[in-house]
Design a protein that fits this description.
Blueprint (H helix, E strand, L loop, with lengths): L22 H4 L2 H5 L4 H20 L5 E6 L5 E5 L8 E2 L4 E2 H7 L25 H7 L1 E10 L2 E8 L2 E2 L4 E4 L6 E8 L11 H14 L4 E6 L4 E5 L5 H9 L8 E9 L8 E11 L5 E6 L2 E2 L3 E2 H20 L12 H5 L2 E9 L11 E2 L2 H21 L1 H28 L28 E6 H11 L5 E6 L11 H5 L2 H10 L25 E5 L4 H17 L1 H5 L3 E4 L4 E5 L2 E5 L2 H10 L5 E4 L8 H9 L6 E3 L5 H12 L3 H11 L6 H4 L1
Parallel strand pairs: 1-10, 14-17, 16-18, 19-20, 19-21, 21-22
Antiparallel strand pairs: 1-2, 2-9, 3-4, 5-6, 5-9, 6-7, 6-8, 10-11, 12-13, 13-17, 14-15, 22-26, 23-24, 23-25
Helix pairs in contact: 3-5, 4-5, 8-10, 10-11, 12-18
Length: about 650
Amino acid sequence: MAKNSNKPNRYDNESITQLKGADRVRLRPSVIFGSDDIVGCQHSIFEIISNSIDEAREGYGSRIEITRHTDGSITNVDYGRGIPVDYNTLEQKYNWELVFCELYAGGKYNNNDSENYQFSLGLNGLGLCSAQYASRFMDVKIYRDGYEYSLYFERGENIGGLKKEISTDSRTGTIIRWLPDNEVFKDIAVPLEYFQDMLKKQAIVNDGLVFVLHDEESGEEFTYCYENGIKDYMAEICGDTALTEPVYFTHEASGRDREDLPKYLLKFSMIFCFDNNVNLLQYFHNSSFLEYGGSPDRAVKNAFLSAIDSYIRNAGLYKKDEKKITFTDIEDSLVLISNSFSTVTSYENQTKKAINNKFIQEAMTDFLKKSLAVYFVENKAEADKIMAQVMVNKRSRETAEKTRLSVKKKLTGGMDFTNRAEKFVNCRTRDITRRELYIVEGDSALGACKLGRDAEFQAIMPVRGKILNCLKADYNKIFANDIITDLIRVLGCGVEVNSKHNKDLNSFDMDKLNWAKIVICTDADYDGFQIRTLILTMLYRLMPALITEKKVYIAESPLYEITSGKDTFFAYSDAEKNAITAKIKGKYHIQRSKGLGENEPDMMWQTTMNPATRKLVQVLPEDMEATRQMFDVLLGDNIKGRKEFIELNGHKYMDMVDVV
């Protein structure tokens, strides 16, 4: 390809440049903070707060105060020793220049020798400097050695140098107020929820340390403190609902990641229980929340799977040729919090979301395997409950997987379903905003509605007999039902499944719904009302969003046909019947309306399908909880409640006996 002579492509010795000073962070924030969006901005905030946490963990200060200001700036106050900022004779520089303006400068490089910070969040000497470089301004006050030191920065540049004066306050510590720069980050509007979540996590793994959050925007103040750390957190999560009592382990070990590397210290505590209402795995290392886990996560999975599988095999709980459990079967009911510390830590990157220390993984795995084996032997009743639950989880998972594979094709949507749903009659238009689906009762109603409809936009789906009660049936039985799976095909939007063991079946997508209106059309008699209720129950259980999005309607069928000479009137209630007959002058004849299948096409069009004359009742979501309770009474397992409801309310519906 010929080069464009107007744009010389020069690459020589002068083409290589080096970022200097604040530009090392400001032009490439993702390298330090993981991204240049709101997540990266949040991490820059955590870098400042983590220094205060390290001080408190070393025993200097028991309270950290954070203020979220209305202008987006943040103030962090600690009561530690105060950052050393005076002249450093070893480095021949002021410490404030090293700490605030030099990457890879700090006091946490000798953790393994217990020089200053044995277990620290900050390791790389990047956090405070990089956060300063990424700020629009940073205002610092430091109290130590009887002096008050002041520093001020704008966009990475110091303004006015170091100011030092005798302090009138006996306190020690550091106050930093700074504003993340929107020239560095695409978004600096850090929500209150981030501070709440982050500070709560830090309180959990720093026993007794008090975090106070002031929010100027709302005027609220929040305090976080867990005197007993992860023990208190476990009690908060599970309360009295746990299947087993919480088990607490603590351990110390020393080792190395490679034979030629120095030994380092590992300390960890862990608490777990089994619970059918909640499952949670959370890992912290040097109080940093390990979102992706790494070494502790691999240790937990290896140890729990090995110990529980061994117990199940030795107890003969596996059936012949049955596959062994997976960690998923354990995790489904496991609540576990791990809090570890080490003097040498290998984070995956500066964002500290995972660690990969080989020794930590091996030491934790070995300890947990042995400790779990002893626990199961010494607590047989608890062990038996755990094993029984794990086996229930395993078999539910396997059954759900079989169900998922068998119904995958049944849950797909699209409009190419004419030959895949029995007796379905499609309409012509493909304009979703016009398409209406009439779900009708039986083949006879299918015939009448098919002849009475507008075939351009109205489709008919017959329900053959009484539909399955979806409130009581499990998913395996539901998806084995041809009537239901045909309806799912025709609707096209998939299903909403929130069951723990059937979550893979969740496929709901409102954008794939093939219809603007879903109209339930049944006879105005007892059987018709029951079928209507069962269809509504199916939609409520499998596709509640159709109700909340107001897509579902009920077509009211007339109760009476009134003729007077050549005129015919239709009444949908006794009140309408009385109002019509009062206006007729002369003789008239009243007849109870026939079932849908016995109606003439013209009557079906006029009373039930013509948008200009029909009566549709929209199913509204205003009180879903009341709906759930009523479905439970009428169709659930609450036999006593159903009996009481009938005794109290049955007289209101006695006229239905005449309709049958």
